[in-house]
């Protein structure tokens, strides 16, 4: 998984927003928000920002606005970004 341009494949409609693991070259994140009016995209950005301890403005949806597969860009990412995004074990 690349830190700058991390891929995510979030399935919408989960019971809670959480990291579900790694799927191929992407991080799988379950989203509780519905994919309506950009709510799922906003929830994804908020979740990743919170998980990394960054402001939401530090996370940008680089591609996948209407796709299930998203590419996020993390501005000023901490060195341990990938580790922070992995599921808790």
Automatic annotation (TrEMBL):
Record InterPro entries: DUF167, YggU-like_sf
Top-level taxon of origin: Bacteria
Gene3D superfamilies reported for this sequence: YggU-like
Gene Ontology cellular component annotations, sorted alphabetically: cytoplasm
Pfam families assigned to the protein according to its UniProt record, in alphabetical order: DUF167
SMART domains (alphabetical): DUF167
Entry similarity comment: Belongs to the UPF0235 family.
NCBIfam families (alphabetical): DUF167 family protein
UniProt xrefs under PANTHER family: UPF0235 PROTEIN C15ORF40
The name this protein goes by in its record: UPF0235 protein IPJ48_14565
Organism this protein belongs to: Candidatus Propionivibrio dominans
